[in-house]
Structures are given as C-alpha cells and as structure tokens.
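Bumping my old thread because nobody answered last time. Still need a sequence for this structure:
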C-alpha cells in the first residue's frame, strides 16, 4: 500500500469507540490530511459502545487478541498520560475468573501459560485453591479456574468514548453528523461517500468502522462481509452478596456476571438456533433469565439463588459469523477501503489497538507496533477461519 503520510483525506464510517480511536491515532501517527468521522447518531443511543459491558480480559485463545488487550490495559492504567490530568474511565482492575470443567482443564492450563508468555498475568488455580480465594464459588464440578489479577477488569466505555472524541477533535478530526448512504468507487478505488443530506465527501481512504452495521456498509460496495448484528441482553441484578472482591466471573455454562455499582450485571448468549440478525431490535430477551442465566448463576454462586432483576437492556454484537474475530485491514481488490469491524463482543477493549493499526496502515503503509495481518480480509475471502476459542 502506498504511504499517504500527510496528504489525502480519510473518511471513517462510524464514530463509536473504534472509529474514534482511528481518528485519534491517525493524528498521533502524523496524518496531516483531513479526517472526517461520519456518525449518524450523535446520541450513540443504539451504538454497541454505549450498550457494552465494557470489560477487558487477556484470557483469549488467539495471540493477537491477548496482545491487543494488553495494549488497552496499559492505556487504561495510564489513562491520564494519554488523555490529560482530568481523564477518568473508572478502570476497575479486578480480574476475570474463568472456570472450566475437568475435560477442558488441560486446554485452559495450556491457554493460560501461552497468555502469560505473551505478557499476561494469569493464575492457574485448582478447584480447592479457587474455593479458598473465592469462598462463594461452587467448585463441585469444575476442574480448573484461571484468574487474571492484572490487565483485566472493567471500565466506563462511555467515558472512554467521550475522552477519545474530545482528543480527536482537539487534534483536528472532524465529526460529521450524517449517515453514509452509498460509497462511490471507480477502477477498484473508493472515491468518496454519499451522505443522507445529499453531500458527497471525497476521500483517498475509507474505513468501515460501522460496528454491527459493518456488513451493511461493506455491502454498499457489493462486498460480502459476514458481520451481522446479533442481540445480546444484559441484566442488572441485586443479590445478597458482597460485590467487594468479586471479579468478572465467566462460567463454563456461558454465563457471565460482574459487579456494577451496588449490584451486578450479567448475561448469557442465546441458543445459537435462536439468534437471528437483529436489525432494529433492542428489546431485552427477558426469557433468557429463567431459561438459562438464573440457573447457571445460582449453580455457580448459590447466593444468586435469590437474585432480583433491577432492569435489563439489549445491544448488538457486531458478530463475525466466520470466526468471531475482528476484521482489520484493506479489502484485497479495493485497496483503499479498510475494515475495522466484526469484533463479536470484544471490540471496546480492542478499539485502541485497532485504531493504532488502521492509522499505521494508512500513514506508514504497514503495521509497526503489532502485526495484525492474520486479521485481514484474506481469510474471509478464502473462507479460512481463525477461530477464537474463548468467546461469550
Ligand atoms: C451487550 C454487549 C456487551 C458487550 N460487552 C463487551 C465487553 O465486555 N468488552 C468488550 O470489549 N466489548 C464488549 N462488547 C462489544 C463492544 O461493545 C463492541 O465491539 C464495540 O463497541 C464496537 O465499537 P464500534 O465503534 O465498532 O461500534 P458502535 O459503538 O456500534 O459504533 C458504530 C457507529 O457507527 C454508526 N453507523 C453505522 N452505520 C453508519 C452509517 N451508514 N453512516 C454513519 N454512521 C453509521 C452507528 O451509529 C454507531 O454509532 C459488548 C457489546 C454488547 C452489545
């Protein structure tokens, strides 16, 4: 790819956490041309970023996911160095506790050792050790637990979005409140985008950072990107249990739960046979509570037997149906159209590394800090998944 270090202009479609980090890092990497982030809903009401559980973990099966999280964890810890003395994203580094069955214990042990070799800090616990450390945990049917005492926890995604937007704007990134309706291309190059108000915005580079609408945006160029909006419900709970010292718990049933304020938030994926594309559907799936979430939570932590739901909300994962991993980098034929979507439930924590990666591609013509080539569009074209084994 040719370098365009200080000329040309970039259009980023979508101004959520991913699009905003792209704008921000373009400037930090020295891009001097115009950067326009087109966002159709400046309230972000339905954006994944605003509806996210905003948790971060280094316990992933793919190396690049571990490395992207480690970059974000360092940024969250040093948030004031990045965004100034008033920056606060409420980073709560209380770790992920993952429990596994006796059958998956060996694979989880190997996974944790690999994560540690990459710089993570994961403790491998026997069931007895897990019980000692987390007395409220039912370990009767588990074979292993892994716990990341640092680089893992949760934060305020909304606060992070506001900080990045503020800083991007200060650096000269322009946010345009409009919707991209069409993308113009000629001779295998994007030449510009067309907005709902009729304006045409020319560009040398165009980035698809449209989150759950990432597949729809790619379709504007006739590209089949298997990224679809899939609904995920979050329940806000009260339970007779002290949240102090309680981590993000990821159960082998697929249920997850973590403290939030004076209570907890929790969720579980739907039955894969009942997980349709969710365009426009933000109605919480209340049936999940009785059908699967509550039994799973009460089994693993008996105090959740008497939980009480305070409220529930639903957001959309930008689900990459091929392999649950992000798609980052240029299209193989239309080289100035770049993807930054498909994170399938881990895009808030991977937004900083994604923004940096896209900026490096545009400014330097290749990756510098972290080689994300495996996440490129090539695997989609070849239908060769790089499966992330730890998803929920
Ligand atoms: C319930 C839930 C829990 C989650 N939990 C976590 C978690 O714990 N940790 C984690 O890392 N991730 C989590 N995620 C995933 C994470 O929220 C997303 O991966 C991330 O927010 C994606 O950011 P984004 O900027 O790509 O998408 P978004 O925040 O959705 O932003 C995309 C933006 O593009 C705009 N847009 C779309 N089409 C157009 C168009 N044609 N023109 C102009 N604008 C357009 C939209 O309005 C939107 O604001 C969760 C997601 C959900 C739904």
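Sorry it took so long. Here it is:
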């Amino acid at each position: 790819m040719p370098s365009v270090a200080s000329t040309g202009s970039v259009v980023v479609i979508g101004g959520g956490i991913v699009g905003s980090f792209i704008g921000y890092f373009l400037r930090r990497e020295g891009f001097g041309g115009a950067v326009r982030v087109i966002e159709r809903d400046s309230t972000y009401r339905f954006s994944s970023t605003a509806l996210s559980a905003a948790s971060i973990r280094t316990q992933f099966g793919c190396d690049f996911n571990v490395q992207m999280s480690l970059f974000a964890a360092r940024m969250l810890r040093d948030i004031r160095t990045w965004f100034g003395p008033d920056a606060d994203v409420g980073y709560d580094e209380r770790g992920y506790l993952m429990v596994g069955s006796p059958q998956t214990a060996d694979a989880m042990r190997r996974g944790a050792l690999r994560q540690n070799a990459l710089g993570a800090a994961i403790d491998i616990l026997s069931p007895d050790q897990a019980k000692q450390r987390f007395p409220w945990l039912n370990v009767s049917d588990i074979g292993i637990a892994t716990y990341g005492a640092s680089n893992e926890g949760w934060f305020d995604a909304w606060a992070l979005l506001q900080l990045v937007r503020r800083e991007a704007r200060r650096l000269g990134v322009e946010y345009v409140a409009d919707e991209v309706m069409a993308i113009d291309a000629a001779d295998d190059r994007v030449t510009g985008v067309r907005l709902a108000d009729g304006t045409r915005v020319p560009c040398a580079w165009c980035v698809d950072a449209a989150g759950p609408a990432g597949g729809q945006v790619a379709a504007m160029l006739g590209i089949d990107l298997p990224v679809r909006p899939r609904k995920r419900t979050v329940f806000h709970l009260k339970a007779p249990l002290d949240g102090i010292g309680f981590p993000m718990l990821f159960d082998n049933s697929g249920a997850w739960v973590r403290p939030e304020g004076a209570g907890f938030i929790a969720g579980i994926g739907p039955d894969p046979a009942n997980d349709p594309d969710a365009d426009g559907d933000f109605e919480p799936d209340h049936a999940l509570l009785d059908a699967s979430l509550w039994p799973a939570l009460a089994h693993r932590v008996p105090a959740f037997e008497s939980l009480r739901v305070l409220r529930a909300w639903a957001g959309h994962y930008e689900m990459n149906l091929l392999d649950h991993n992000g798609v980052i980098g240029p299209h193989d034929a239309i080289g100035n159209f770049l993807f930054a979507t498909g994170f399938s439930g881990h895009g808030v924590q991977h937004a900083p590394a994604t923004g940096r990666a896209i900026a490096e591609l545009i400014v330097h013509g290749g990756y510098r800090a972290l080689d994300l080539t495996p996440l490129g569009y090539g695997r989609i074209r070849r239908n060769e998944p790089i499966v992330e084994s730890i998803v929920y």
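Confidence is low (pLDDT under 50) at residues 1-6. Let me know if any region looks off to you.
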